[in-house]
Design goal:
Length: 965
């Protein structure tokens, strides 16, 4: 990112408030005035039914926002009834609604030294949001600045005791949280087991029984909710007497799903019969102690204890119980595992109470009856053009965002008084990031490599260090959190643990060394300022799934995740869709030292095959840079675990992430993942084995295959072979042509170009060398080959891309004013043809300009004529439509050009082609490449296959998630 001012943004004590300096904005210029805005029509359909599920015309967004980002923000975050004057129509209205609420609260609660500081804060926050540098979690966009309760938190932890009043209150509180668009988690271990007696003498129901009621409640609210599906987490301690029943609960339900499916019932997710299956609306996790894990290692017995008096009710073999956990996870992906010892060893408030549970995605872990406000930073925004990381700006941005997050607690509403009181007393925040996978790839780091882990650890350390430093500075201005005095020793002990972990980072490259140096300084200040001022916040950071907000920021990867796949499905502004190789790939190849020609060949190979295996010119030692979450070179399960372990010591909370395993994985492999997660110091872990769940909506593809199979069995086989061939479009007998004389490096020649009636190039003749010479013969043969290629539909753009920049003699000065230097005859010829026969946008994309255009660029900063900016989006979209209707007559490269022009996300498109009509998401695109169906749910809003995001799933079509943030 490029700074617009040289002023250093450092916050210092100034009277009773913060003094805020500028980072990106300019005095006297509003951030909106630095952006080009455009109107877009947002229309969303369910591709299965063809039903229009949303339509809003004329929504206003910056021109660099992608179609997907603008669609998701319009459908998810704009408030007001569609078609009414109250409906938000512009990103400006949305950002103002949120930012101005924060600024007002900051003023009211004494955060700023002056009105000028408040205005700078407003402008900087606005700039960061409009430029997709970070995003608040979804509830902020849903609720802040509206007439609804100002719920800003995405994550909640509830509490339930061993009484019927408490259990019924649990149901009510969860319902209120789901209604607000958030998720909740809780630990049921206080509820006595089914092996214990009630005071009346009867036998207790046990926690698993009460889970049924809560599951039904969540399912009902999920169906009627207006913003997102319900998300919840249920935790049970490993020493609870009902632990085996809890472990096997969802696995047994999966057996039921299989039986009902085989009997002909509709058991797909969202199917009419799936509601008969229980426990499907929650993630389950077992909370294991260090004592239990040591018993597993040593093969010892382990005691299950009474909830009433703590006595041992039953003794079990620890390894057997551990194996049952792994087997259940192998069968249905539940339960996950949470490591109680590690969680509470890093707890800043042990004097107040233990951490017993987490939010649904397992990244927020804190006191019972508490909540957490999240925000995530787009890491790729800090990678400069020269592939260096803007360390100082990243630190300043983290401080500014953290300030805003803390202000939100001042005006926030909460679903229960207990949650509100705990949150105001402890002010837990969760700053995090997205696009780590894209950053690692763009800088040439393998996700599962020492270099990749060192960079991720350094960035995470700096982020949390900057956040806690700001927390200590805020404590000096507006006071420490209410629970700090009681927990001061413990809080400062954890800060020193973070500092010690930072000292253990072993950097490998200049980039992570620079970041680590800044992190070391930050943690030094954290410890010093904390001892002096205390801290404003009990928690500061975590890594969330960043599903919907990841799309809002046009991120290529979510949270801590690696790239999902190398080829993505991309929607275009105004309609249409493309299959696009992400721009991080050519950037990574350039960083690794490959030539432009080799980069083009590799990118083209990836576009065809979806992976890098056997890509032309790519060294095998560089394959790991392009490893992905899914596909031909999927990252190993332990690769995911090691990345989590690298960043965990620098997070207040935990990490939302699922470790994916292949369908062939064994129960023993899952046991090893769980065991290593404990040894490596993780706080929580979830696994997912491909195709382990039956109740996933994969029946469309399978049903179609079954239908076709039945048809084939019923009818005689008639083998039909359809062969597609290009058709040669011959030039008319009489055609227009022009001859250009040229000289390259003192050698002279002639170029004759013939055209069709519509002006398109159809043939070339090159005269170079004496008649009858070998050179003249080669030139004649080359001319014929190019001419036939043009007539068979090979776009001129392709020839220009392949033959410009070729280097051989003769080369040097030319006699052409538009092309002063040429690296070879071919370089000159195809540059000349590009200038004569390609439109401005196409050749400008390849860096080919006339002398007049270069002169204009020096004067105005733009190559384009003042009277036009090239083809409009509408023209380009029309071109896409024309292609979709008549692919045989429109060159594919024109579609690629259209994609590059219309896609303004900033991510770019290295290679683009029209997506198959049956593909609607990156998950489906990956299936097309791999020939294997991905085990992921279908979005119940728009029918698109979702893809993983942390421990949740997110829909690329409408932004819906299965999680809480």
């Amino acid at each position: 990112m490029t700074e617009t001012t040289g002023a250093r943004s450092r916050t210092r004590r100034a009277g009773k408030g913060l003094k805020i300096d500028r980072i990106f904005t300019t005095p006297g210029v509003h951030p909106y005035d630095q952006v080009t805005w455009e109107k877009r029509d947002v229309v969303q359909t369910n591709w299965k039914s063809g039903e229009t599920i949303f339509e809003q015309r004329g929504a206003e967004f910056p021109d660099f926002w992608s179609a997907n980002a603008s669609t998701i923000v319009t459908t998810k975050y704009f408030r007001g009834a569609v078609g009414t004057p109250e409906r938000e129509q512009s990103l400006k209205q949305l950002v103002d609604r949120v930012v101005l609420t924060y600024v007002k609260a900051g003023k009211d609660h004494g955060y700023f030294a002056s009105d000028e500081d408040a205005e700078i804060f407003e402008h900087e926050l606005t700039y960061l949001l409009v430029h997709q540098v970070f995003a608040f979690n979804s509830p902020v966009w849903f609720n802040v600045g509206t007439s609804s309760p100002q719920q800003v938190s995405a994550c909640f932890i509830l509490s339930v005791d061993d009484s019927m009043d408490s259990i019924l209150n649990w149901y009510r509180e969860e319902g209120k949280i789901f209604q607000g668009g958030s998720g909740a988690g809780l630990n049921l271990s206080r509820i006595r087991s089914s092996k214990e007696l009630l005071s009346s003498g009867g036998t207790a129901s046990g926690p698993v029984s009460f889970m049924r009621g809560a599951d039904a409640s969540a399912g009902t609210i999920k169906s009627g909710g207006a913003t997102r599906r319900a998300a919840k987490m249920v935790v049970l301690d490993v020493d609870h007497p009902d632990i085996e029943e809890f472990i096997e609960t969802k696995a047994r339900e999966e057996d039921k799903i299989r039986a009902l499916r085989d009997a002909g019932f509709d058991m797909d997710l969202g199917g009419k019969d799936i509601v008969s299956v229980q426990y499907q609306n929650a993630n389950n996790s077992v909370r294991v102690s260090d004592e239990f894990m040591r018993a597993v290692e040593e093969g010892k017995e382990f005691g299950l204890t009474s909830r009433l008096d703590g006595s041992v009710i039953e003794t079990v073999d620890a390894r057997d119980l551990f194996e049952k956990m792994a087997k259940a996870a192998w069968e249905c992906a539940d339960p996950g595992i949470q490591y109680d010892g590690t969680i509470n060893d890093w707890h800043t408030n042990p004097e107040t109470g233990r951490i017993t549970a987490s939010n649904p995605c397992s990244e927020y872990m804190s006191l019972d009856n508490s909540s957490c406000n999240l925000a995530s930073i787009n890491l790729l925004k800090f990678l400069r053009e020269d592939d260096t990381f803007d360390v100082e700006t990243f630190e300043r941005v983290a401080e500014l965002i953290f300030t805003a997050m803390d202000i939100s607690i001042c005006f926030a509403d909460f679903p229960t008084e207990a949650i509100g009181q705990t949150t105001r007393d402890y002010r837990q925040l969760g700053i995090g990031y997205a696009n780590l996978g894209a950053l690692l790839m763009a800088t040439g780091h393998g996700y599962d490599s020492e270099g990749g882990r060192a960079l991720a650890a350094a960035i995470t350390s700096l982020m949390t260090g900057a956040a806690y430093k700001r927390s200590a500075e805020l404590a000096a201005v507006v006071g420490p959190y209410n629970g700090y005095a009681r927990n001061a020793d413990a809080h400062n002990r954890v800060m020193r643990k973070h500092q010690a972990a930072n000292d253990e980072i072993r950097v490998l490259h200049t980039m992570d060394a620079d970041i680590h140096r800044a992190a070391t300084k930050a943690w030094d200040q954290v410890v010093k300022l904390g001892d002096k001022n205390g801290f404003r916040n009990a928690q500061a950071s975590l890594l969330a799934p960043t599903g919907t907000i990841g799309f809002m920021m046009d991120c290529d990867t979510t949270g801590i995740e690696p790239d999902f796949s190398l080829v993505k499905f991309k929607k275009l502004v105004g309609g249409g869709s493309m299959q696009i190789v992400n721009q991080t790939i050519p950037r990574a190849l350039k960083k690794l030292g490959y030539t432009q020609e080799t980069i083009e060949a590799i990118v083209e190979y990836i576009a065809e095959h979806g992976h890098v295996i056997d890509a032309p010119g790519l060294k095998t030692e560089h394959y790991e840079v392009f490893d992905t979450a899914m596909g031909a070179r999927a990252i190993s399960p332990m690769g995911h675990v090691r990345m989590m372990a690298a960043t965990q010591p620098f997070l207040s909370g935990a990490i939302s992430k699922t470790v994916n395993l292949p369908e062939s994985a064994t129960v023993e492999e899952i046991e090893e993942v769980y065991l290593q997660g404990w040894k490596l110091g993780l706080k929580a872990l979830a696994v997912y084995r491909d195709n382990c769940k039956v109740g996933q909506p994969l029946s469309d593809a399978k049903a179609n295959k079954d239908d076709k199979k039945a048809e084939n069995e019923a009818e005689p086989k008639v083998e039909k072979v359809i062969e597609y061939r290009p058709v040669r479009k011959r030039l008319p007998k009489r055609r227009t042509s022009q001859t250009t004389s040229f000289a390259v490096g003192g050698a002279e020649g002639y170029l004759t170009a013939g055209t069709y009636d519509d002006g398109d190039l159809g043939e070339i003749f090159l005269k170079f060398g004496k008649q009858g010479s070998t050179l003249a013969g080669v030139m004649d043969a080359f001319s014929i080959a190019v001419s036939i290629g043009l007539q068979y539909g090979v776009p001129l753009e392709t020839f220009v891309e392949k033959f410009t920049n070729l280097r051989f003699e003769p080369a040097g000065l030319t006699d052409d004013a538009d092309i002063r230097m040429a690296q070879s005859i071919m370089d000159y010829v195809f540059r000349r043809l590009a200038l004569d026969y390609l439109d401005f946008e196409s050749r400008s994309f390849m860096g080919i300009h006339t002398a007049e255009e270069r002169a204009r660029q020096l004067e105005t900063g733009s190559y384009a004529p003042m009277t036009t900016s090239g083809s409009s989006d509408e023209d380009l979209e029309d071109e896409l439509e024309t292609y979709s209707q008549s692919p045989a007559t429109t060159p594919a490269k024109k579609v690629e050009k259209a994609a590059k022009e219309v896609d303004k996300s900033g991510a770019g498109a290295a290679d683009a082609r029209k997506a198959d009509a049956g593909i609607h998401s990156s998950a489906e695109l990956l299936e097309a490449f791999s020939g294997k169906v991905n085990d992921a749910p279908i979005c119940m809003t728009c029918g698109t296959k979702m893809r993983p995001a942390g421990s949740c799933y997110v829909c690329e079509g409408c932004g819906s998630t299965s999680g809480c943030s």
